[in-house]
Amino acid sequence: KSIVVLISGSGSNLQAIIDACDSEQIDGTISAVFSNVPEAYGLVRAQQSGIITEVVEPKYFSSRTDYDLALADTIDRYKPDLIVLAGYMRILSPVFVNRYAGKLLNIHPSLLPKYPGLHTHSQALSNGDKQHGATIHFVTEELDGGPIILQAAVPVLPQDSEAGLIKRVQVEEHRIYPLVVSWFMDGRLAMRDGKAWMDNQ
Ligand code: GRF
Questions:
Q1: Long-range contacts of 103-106 (CB under 8 A, 24+ apart)
Q2: What is the residue-level pLDDT of the chain in tens, covering all 201 positions?
Q3: Which residues lie closer than 8 Å to 123 by C-beta, 6 or more apart?
Q4: Which residue among 107, 114, 162, 165 has the greatest number of ligand 1 atoms within 8 angstroms of its CB, and so is best to mutate?
Q5: Among all residues, which ones are annotated catalytic?
């Protein structure tokens, strides 16, 4: 079974998913890792694990839709059962999102519906939140607004720096993302009628 992962950066969530495939927690293989950023360190991680990498750079396309169509055509060569956004920092257009409806996952570093978009950790800190965390959801046309699958919360401590809080949230990200991917690959998780459906057997 084929998984395609999209990244833009360091790829620590990608690494957690690579490790979970290697240990067979996830029943599937990462067939390719895509990045819109040529320098993304996650590409090095993928190559170190012998995974094919593809860089599709936005500057060669005249519109977001053109880019997303080219991206999707390249992704389809890997016949993915699941597409995982792991720190992919580009907004995907409706043509892309609808093409992969029900097989597109994203991780977002907040307890959605709180703080969609960027700079979630600094917002949690400046608002004096007691809790912060991460959410995994199916991707729909609404930015960071698709059906929620799993969330993990961490405490926000009075002396926290942004970097410290990011780290605490990422520990949880690296735990819950492989878990959700494993559920999906086992056929226990789906999007039905715009909701996350889970077989609890
Ligand atoms: C993660 O915090 C994720 O929640 C956000 O971007 C970050 C990606 O980190 N969307 P990494 O590239 O997986 O290390």
A1: 103/184, 104/138, 104/139, 105/136, 105/137, 105/138, 105/139, 105/149, 105/180, 105/181, 105/184, 106/136, 106/137, 106/138, 106/139, 106/144, 106/146
A2: 999 999 999 999 999 999 999 999 999 999 999 999 999 999 999 999 999 999 999 999 999 999 999 999 999 999 999 999 999 999 999 999 999 999 999 999 999 999 999 999 999 999 999 999 999 999 999 999 999 999 999 999 999 999 999 999 999 999 999 999 999 999 999 999 999 999 986
A3: 110, 115
A4: 107
A5: 108
If you measure from the C-alpha of residue 84 to the centroid of ligand 1, how many angstroms do you get, rounded to a whole number? 12
The Cα 118–Cα 116 span in angstroms is 7
User: Any residues with CB less than 8 A from the CB of 126 and at least 6 apart, and which?
Assistant: none
- For tokens 């996830």, name the residue: 26
CA dist list (Å): 30 to 137, 153, 182: 19, 28, 12
State the DSSP code for 25.
S
Residue ranges for the known binding site are 11-13, 64, 89-92, 106
For the chain, domains (ranges, CATH) are: 2-113+131-153+169-198 (3.40.50.170)
pTM for this entry: 0.97
